[in-house]
């Protein structure tokens, strides 16, 4: 695990480390691959591809196939069931990580070693360093970071499996490192009941409101949920502060104990000022009003999280949103070296010492739509990707993944020294599909961005959205779910049918040629927009959390595949609208 000495080294010398890494991309990548082959070429999985025993970098690229999780799953299952992990990797597995991407409904299990954890830690620390350097004075105060955990599971072999966040928050390096700068006592983060945890974390954050200089979480979706929680609970939080007593329903021993050390006396003055702020009709800028010394909001806001950008800009009162890192259970990928970039310009610089990266070129058709990735196209090395091109990332790690397709599509937007910077474009397997039409996550998100613009001047905010392909009738149609609310208030907006239909039209118009021609030919019905009431998407999140997903790693699905999930959103429906039948 990263020792205090290593952490100190990164904080003291981090900028030089970054210069070195980004200047020597090709050399470091070659070394990383050599090291992986040196230790793992003899495993049952890899040795098949080196029949004459020569496992050099070139024969790796020629012989080892590019795979997905399903190809490696039999090995993972064998290890989870008790066989030695040396069938796949040489280093000892300390536990499995659970990924939110599912394989046949089950989270994927990804091996983690002490070494792979350290690499992640060093990327996290470098990213933290770069962000702090950007904001003077942010070193001094505290972070109000809303973090949550989920119970671990145990595989038949006795190896544990948990989400990375859960593992990380339980480590000594977290407890003795970053956690020291947090307002949340560690026991409130480690509480398994998310509601008690959220209440106590917000309460401690409010009690220390003048010291808070950073507000954040893992993903933007968690902060959207936090704001909703604050709307529902601010009165009770104020009451606790006023009386100096914690609510009766906080029964988790860790939380109770931690709160008894912080909530030590009645503080009516503080309660009054918080109450005054929260009673204000408009909650615009509520985050900076409650925590006046905040310098930035820190959470991932790219990819499927971009739907929360306007919400966070509104409640954050315009303070910078910093999207720090791009990583997954499989590997860390890149960090944001320009923390002040606007949300839609954020790029992540890949660090070449993290893993061995390859990139499958992804074609775009004349309309800019992503085409199939062909694995027989030559993958390109990290040092050889081209500016402006799209790629699917393929990763090889010391922890048992070899030429593994992560499923994310990225675009090269620039270089820091010799290291490419990528914008996250979309998840490859997230598509709405009817017949031969395939509408990707990127198509959808671009279309929705355009359509929601006509709601903004009316003071209506799209807080979150999803979709599904309704094929219960023929022809099928795409259905969008939008959660709408008035800016700064929780009231349901008055929905003008003409305007909502116009939103449907804008979405359909921005879809590609294939969609439009199918729609025109009658193979796809008019798009439907279902508006759901405020809070409905929280129920969807609760549903996925009850199925085992961690709040800290939850990503709202852009396209729903589960009937139960569609049912939950339908139950909050307050209006439905269609594109005109004869639009095309
Ligand atoms: P998980 O393995 O559950 O941590 O999920 C990893 C996935 O989350 C990645 O493969 C991406 O699709 C998504 N993700 C992680 N970081 C980012 C980011 N900075 N921007 C957009 N998507 C991200």
UniProtKB/TrEMBL annotation:
Domain GH3 C-terminal: 442-564
Keywords of this entry: Coiled coil, Ligase
Annotated GO MF terms: acid-amino acid ligase activity
InterPro entries given in the database record: GH3, GH3_C, GH3_M
Residues covered by the GH3 middle domain: 348-427
GO CC term, one of those recorded: cytoplasm
A Pfam entry, by short name: GH3_M
Family statement drawn from the similarity comment of this UniProt entry: Belongs to the IAA-amido conjugating enzyme family.
Annotated protein name in UniProt: GH3 auxin-responsive promoter
Organism field: Gossypium darwinii (Darwin's cotton)
Taxonomic placement: Eukaryota, Viridiplantae, Streptophyta, Embryophyta, Tracheophyta
């Amino acid at each position: 695990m990263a020792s205090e000495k290593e952490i100190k080294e990164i904080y003291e010398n981090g900028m030089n480390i970054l210069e070195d890494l980004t200047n020597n991309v090709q050399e470091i990548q070659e070394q990383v691959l050599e090291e992986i082959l040196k230790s793992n070429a003899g495993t049952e999985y890899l040795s098949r591809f080196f029949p004459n025993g020569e496992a050099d970098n070139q024969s790796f690229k020629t012989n080892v196939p590019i795979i997905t999780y399903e190809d490696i799953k039999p090995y993972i299952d064998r290890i989870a069931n008790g066989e030695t992990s040396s069938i796949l990797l040489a280093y000892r597995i300390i536990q499995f990580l659970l990924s939110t991407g599912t394989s046949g409904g089950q989270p994927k299990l990804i091996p983690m070693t002490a070494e792979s954890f350290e690499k992640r830690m060093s990327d996290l620390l470098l990213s933290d360093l770069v962000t702090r350097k950007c904001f003077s004075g942010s070193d001094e105060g505290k972070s109000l970071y809303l973090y949550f955990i989920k119970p671990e599971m145990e595989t038949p072999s006795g190896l544990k499996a948990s989400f990375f966040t859960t593992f990380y928050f339980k480590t000594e390096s977290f407890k003795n490192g970053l956690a020291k700068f947090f307002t949340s006592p560690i026991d409130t983060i480690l509480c398994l009941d998310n509601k008690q945890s959220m209440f106590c974390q917000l309460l401690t954050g409010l009690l220390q409101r003048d010291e808070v200089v950073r507000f954040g979480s893992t993903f933007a979706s968690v902060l959207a949920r936090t704001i909703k929680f604050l709307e529902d609970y601010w009165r009770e939080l104020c009451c606790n502060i006023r009386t100096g007593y914690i609510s009766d329903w906080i029964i988790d021993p860790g939380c109770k104990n931690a709160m008894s050390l912080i909530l030590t006396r009645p503080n009516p003055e503080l309660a009054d000022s918080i109450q005054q702020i929260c009673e204000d009709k408009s909650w615009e800028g509520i985050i900076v009003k409650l925590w006046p010394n905040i310098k930035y909001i820190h959470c991932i806001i790219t990819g499927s999280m971009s739907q929360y950008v306007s919400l966070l800009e509104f409640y954050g009162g315009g303070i910078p949103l910093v999207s720090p890192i791009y990583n997954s259970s499989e590997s860390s990928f890149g960090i944001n070296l320009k923390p002040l970039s606007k949300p839609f310009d954020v790029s992540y610089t890949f660090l070449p010492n993290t893993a061995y990266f390859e990139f499958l070129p992804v074609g775009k058709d004349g309309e800019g739509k992503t085409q199939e990735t062909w694995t027989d196209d030559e993958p390109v090395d990290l040092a050889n990707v081209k500016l402006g091109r799209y790629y699917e990332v393929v990763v090889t790690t010391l922890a048992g993944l070899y030429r593994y397709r992560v499923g994310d599509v990225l675009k090269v937007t620039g270089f820091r020294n010799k290291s490419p910077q990528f914008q996250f474009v979309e998840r490859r397997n997230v598509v709405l599909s009817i017949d031969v039409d395939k509408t990707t996550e990127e198509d959808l998100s671009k279309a929705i961005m355009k359509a929601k613009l006509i709601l903004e001047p009316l003071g209506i905010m799209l807080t979150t959205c999803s979709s599904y392909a309704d094929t219960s009738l023929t022809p099928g149609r795409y259905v969008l779910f939008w959660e709408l609310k008035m800016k700064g208030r929780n009231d349901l907006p008055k929905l003008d049918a003409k305007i909502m239909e116009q939103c449907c039209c804008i979405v359909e118009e921005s879809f590609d040629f294939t969609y439009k021609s199918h729609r025109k030919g009658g193979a796809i019905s008019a798009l439907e927009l279902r508006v759901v009431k405020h809070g409905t998407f929280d129920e969807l999140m609760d549903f996925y959390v009850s199925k085992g997903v961690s709040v800290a790693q939850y990503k709202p699905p852009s396209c729903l595949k589960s009937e139960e999930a569609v049912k939950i959103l339908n139950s909050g429906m307050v209006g439905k609208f269609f594109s005109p039948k004869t639009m095309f």
